[in-house]
Amino acid sequence: MAALCNVRNKIFQPLFSQVRHRKSFDVRKPPPPSLIHRLINEVTAPLEVYRRIPMADQCYIGKLAQYTSSKQLNRYEEFMLEQIRKRLKSTRLLLIYQYLPITVAEKKNMQYQLSTQGFRLFHANTKLMKTALAETRWANLCQNISQFTCYISSESLKVSDLLKCTHTMPKLILLGGAIENHLLTRDGVVAFSKLSLENVQSELVGLLASNSATASSLLDHHQRQLVANLKQLSIQDSQD
């Protein structure tokens, strides 16, 4: 406050009596223009009056224009989108991973390790990947896609081998994926990898055997009941 007072003291502030002015201030309203001036103003006025757009509407219009422009694809993006579509058509297994900061050498090393097992690690543009997935049966996977996601695809269903291979890669975090026509979370993918063909076959054989035994017992039940009823009826007739 003291510093502000010092600044004010250093600035020259003239008094009201020291300023040149009339004897009295003119506080009257300006006189209206003449008839000729008013006619000229009316004739030369624009037909379309400029309408002031509120700031909120300006932001909305700008965002809408930006969104429509972002949906338009150039030739390179159309080419890459077609490549992603072809890859998804021939894919039976697609897992989504979130990757931590990695170097180019680490990325190439992971791609080589996965390629030796028959898997393919690839990156794709977020907008293009969401557009391609929206046209398939895996459209709900778009919720797991972000800027830091990569994808591992395969034409086989060797989920256990894939998880064993990625277990040695701590910078890849499993988010979920799709196996055939089923969308699975991280826990679902892990549970699917623990299933073995022998266990599934034994369970299927057990279910089929139990169903056949139940069906045969139901069919024999009616026959046995009919025989018992006829025998009881014959006994009653002989007694009469």
From TrEMBL:
The keyword Iron-sulfur does not apply. GO terms for cellular component: ribonucleoprotein complex; ribosome. Keywords: Ribonucleoprotein, Ribosomal protein. It comes from the Eukaryota. Gene3D superfamilies: 3.30.70.1730. InterPro entries: Ribosomal_uL10, Ribosomal_uL10-like_sf, Ribosomal_uL10_bac_type. Belongs to the universal ribosomal protein uL10 family. This is Large ribosomal subunit protein uL10m. The gene is LOC115232420.
